[in-house]
Amino acid sequence: TSQKTGSPADYDGDVKDYLSGISDQITVLDNRSKGQIKLENGKVGDAYYFLSRGGLDMSDIADLILAYLLKHKLFGDLYFWLHKFHKDEGEDNAKNEARRFVYTFCLALKSYGDAYYWMQEFGHLKKDAAVEVAVEAVKNKDYGDGYYWYVESGYPEDVARQAVARKAYEKDDKDHYNWWNNQIVDPKLKLELALFLLK
User: Fold this and answer.
1) What is the pLDDT of residue 11?
2) Distance between CA atoms of 77 and 90, rounded to whole angstroms?
3) What is the pTM for the complete model shown?
4) Which of 56, 86, 81, 84 is nearest to 67 (CA)?
5) CA–CA separation, 147 vs 135, rounded Å?
6) Would you say 116 and 130 are in contact if contact means Cβ atoms under 8 Å apart?
7) What pLDDT is attached to residue 20?
8) Mean pLDDT per 10-residue run, the chain (199 residues)?
9) Which of 160, 158, 165, 140 is nearest to 149 (CA)?
10) Which of 3, 9, 50, 158 has the greatest CB tally within 10 Å of its CB?
11) What is the pLDDT at residue 28?
């Protein structure tokens, strides 16, 4: 076998051509890395700038940004970016879709106060938003939160306790059912609950 010999200068042109050919790829990867670092440091706008120059699809950029915002429960920023990513659907539709997504995420993350706010931004009446939050809270077995939001919606306190007790019973959560049932002061409401559960 023969071994190729020569001075480094002989290959200088080849190396320059190679580096020139991949320089764009190096820049793209560098931008992607910068974007991820910016995102980790909470610089979402800067992250978007670099990631959009980092060879990623817009859907991938959106996923990275939304995941960061959800992790840190930055719901106001989440609305801004969801609105931005849906702008091609028309301004009003983009705003409504963004608000709907935000309150859905809030409920899923058990951020009930934020969900209540964003439901109203979406167009729910205060009372309806509070009831919807209450229902979701008791569904998650967050009975104290459910009680609070039932009362916030306008339920009398005993009616709210009855509603929570009923949901606990439906979930076969006997301990919480007994506790909430014992909190009901009005004997008529206690009887009404007992009759309902006998059906």
Assistant:
1) 59
2) 20
3) 0.80
4) 81
5) 9
6) yes
7) 67
8) 52 67 81 90 92 89 94 94 84 88 95 97 95 96 97 95 94 92 91 84
9) 160
10) 50
11) 84
SS (H, E, C) the chain: CCCCCCCHHHHHHHHHHHHHHHHHHHHHHHHHHHHHHHHHCCCHHHHHHHHCCCCCCHHHHHHHHHHHHHHCCCHHHHHHHHHHHCHHHCHHHHHHHHHHHHHHHHHHCCCHHHHHHHHHHHCCCHHHHHHHHHHHHHHCCCHHHHHHHHHHCCCCHHHHHHHHHHHHHHCCCHHHHHHHHHHCCCHHHHHHHHHHHHC
What was the pLDDT predicted at 91? 79
Residue type, 64: L
**Which amino acid is residue 67, in one-letter code?**
A
Residue 32 tokens, joined: 């992607």
Q: Which two tokens stand for residue 111?
A: 């951020």
